[in-house]
Structure formats: C-alpha cells, structure tokens
Design goal:
alpha+beta; 2 strands; about 55 residues; two-stranded parallel sheet; globular
Length: about 55
Amino acid sequence: MARRLGIEILCEGVETEDQLQKLLASHCKYGQGYLFSPPMDLETFDAYVDAHELERK
C-alpha cells in the first residue's frame, strides 16, 4: 500500500544479513538496526557522520 501511495518505507530492528536480504528483495530501501550500528548518543553520531562524510538531510 505504501508504494502505491508514494510513501518510502523504513524497516526497524534489522539485525541479520538474512533479514536485510529479505527486505531488499521486497524493495525496501531503508533500514535501521544493530546490523548497521548500535544506538549512539548525539556526539558519537555527529562524529560518525563526519568521519564517513555522510550527507545530513
């Protein structure tokens, strides 16, 4: 339904590569969870973004 409405989907709680592959196969482009990073405070997050030259939106 979300795709038909033009809404992007973000999947939370991605912990394994298998889960990620299933989400990608389902055309889910965005995810978050321990597979990518444990939770971090703002200072740590800012340093991570700067170190990886990520775009802030």
